[in-house]
Amino acid sequence: MEEKCGVFGIKSSREEMLAHTVYYGLYALQHRGQESAGIVVNHARDFYSHKDLGLVGDVFSREVLDRFPAGNIAIGHVRYGTTGGSTRVNCQPVEVHHHKGNLALAHNGNLSNAAELKKRLEEEGSIFHTTSDTEIIAYLITKHRLTCDSIEEAVSASMTDLHGAYSLVISSPTKMIAVRDPYGFRPLCYGTTPDGSHVIASETCALYSVGARFVRDVEPGEIIVFDGDKVISRREHCNTAPKRVCIFEYIYFARADSRIDGISVHRSRLKLGRMLARIAPVEADIVIGVPDSGIDAALGYSQEAGIPYGKGLIKNRYIGRTFISPASEDRHDKVRIKLSPVPSEIEGKKIILIDDSIVRGTTMGEIIRMLREAGAKEVHIRISAPEFLHPCYYGTDVDSQENLVACHHTVDEICTMIGADSLAFLPVGSLEEISGKDDYCSACFDGEYPD
Questions:
Q1: Which CATH number fits the domain that encloses residue 356?
Q2: Quick one: 233 and 123 in the same domain?
Q3: Does 212 share its domain with 326?
Q4: Beta strand ranges found along 276-341 (DSSP E)
Q5: Before 291, cis peptide (omega within 30)?
Q6: Are 277 and 204 members of one domain?
C-alpha cells in the first residue's frame, strides 16, 4: 500500500498568483494527507515547484508562496503517509520534462498493477527516482505522449494499462486535465470561480475554500480537458467498469462538509450512527464520539437512541491522525497527545463511545484506558463500520491481514483485548443505506475486490 491523498488544480484565463489559491485548496484537503505537500505553477510553459515533507502550513510560508511566479495553471498535492516511502523524493506533484513539453501530475489512489507496469517500463529504459506509483503513471503518459497528437490522447491511451485507483490532476504546458479511474474509487470534482477560473479538487470542501462554485463530479472513467475557455469531456473509458467508490470515503476519509457523487458525507455518517443505535442498543447515560470522524455518527446514535450527546473527548488540532503514523509505538504515544478526556462529562457515567473503525486495536484500547482513568463507569464501543478483514489495494492504509485484529479474534475477544464493556460493529449489508445502491467498494470488509 502506498498512499491516499488530496489533489487540487486551478486554471485561469490569465497569468496570476495561483500558488496562493492552491495553498488554500490544499489546506482544506489537509485531512487527506499530512505527510507532505507540493505545488507546481505553470508560468509561460515553464514549471516552478516547491514540495517538502510536513503539513501545508509548514511547507509553504508566505515567503515561499511569494517566490512563485504568476501563472495560468497550478496544481497541488497533499500526501497521506503510510508505512514506508516517507521521503522527500516521493513528494508530489511529479514532474516530467521531455521534448514535447512538461508534465506535472498529482495522484490520489493506488495502482494494483504497479509492479508489473514498473518492470515493463524499466525494461524499456525508464529510470525511476521514487517508490511511488504516481511516477509510473507519469512515465506511462509521457511514453504515449511521444507518439500521440495531444496530451489527452496520451492520457486516454495510458488508462488502458492502468488498473486500480487513480484520481489525477495534470498540467501540460497549455492544458489542465482531470482524470478519474473507470471504477471511480476516489472522489474528484470540479467547479468555477466568479472570475471564470476552473478548479479541480478531491472534495467539494476545497472548492468552497477558494470561492469556487461546484459544477459536478468527474464521472468514473472520464477525462475532462480544460483548454483555454473550453471544457471538453472525453468518455471513452466511462462505463467500462462498474462504479465502485470507496465506502471508506463516507465513513472516515472525507471531510464532513463535503459531498461525494452527490451524497452528503455528514448525512451519511448520521445514518450510520442511527443504524448502530437500532442494531446494537445499550443502556447508557451519554453518547460521545471520537473526534473528528466519529462525531457525526455519535450524533446519529444519540438522536435515534434518545440518549444525550456529550463532548467527552477533546482533540488537539495540531497533531496528525494516529491512523497515518507509520510505526505502532508512535501511534500509541500520539493517542494521549492527540486526545484528552473531559472528566466532568464522563465521571461516574455509562458511556457509549462511537468511532469509525478498529484496525489494529491499539488506539481504541488506549482511549478506553483514558476514559476509565477519568472516571467512566462503563464504556460501550460502537463502530460505524464493519470489521476490517482484508487489506486494501486501492490507496487506503488498511494493513495486511497479519495486523488486522478482526482477522484473528472474535468480536468478544476484541472487546476483552481493548478493555470495553461491550463492542458492536455494523454489518456489511447495512452500508447500502448510505447511497441506496451497491455501487461502492467494500473489499476491506467483505474481500470482494472489483479489480
A1: 3.40.50.2020
A2: yes
A3: no
A4: 286-289, 313-315, 339-341
A5: no
A6: no
Would strands 101-111 and 245-246 be described as parallel, antiparallel, or unpaired?
unpaired
> Looking up cell 503510510, which residue turns up?
82
Q: Would you call 148 a catalytic residue per the annotation?
A: no
CA neighbor of 46 nearest in space, from 65, 14, 71 = 71
- Shared domain for 272 and 235, answered yes or no, is no
d(CA 408, CA 400): 12
How far is residue 212's CA from residue 210's CA, in Å, rounded to a whole number?
Answer: 6
Over residues 382-426, the pLDDT tens digits come to 999 999 998 888 877 666 788 789 999 999 999 999 999 999 999
pLDDT per residue over 229-283, tens digit each? 999 999 999 999 999 999 999 999 999 999 999 999 999 999 999 999 999 999 9
Q: Number of folded domains in the chain?
A: 2
Domain limits for position 115: 6-243
Q: Are residues 177 and 36 in the same domain?
A: yes
Tell whether 318 and 239 lie within a shared domain.
no
Residue with cell 467508490: 245
Same domain, 295 and 413: yes
Kindly report, residue by residue over 3-13, the tens digit of the pLDDT: 469 999 999 98
For the entire predicted model, the pTM comes to 0.91
The residue among 324, 258, 313 whose CA lies nearest residue 289 is: 313
Tell the residue number behind the cell numbers 517508490, with chain if given: 131
CATH number at residue 120: 3.60.20.10
| Cα dihedral across residues 27, 30, 34, 39: positive or negative | negative
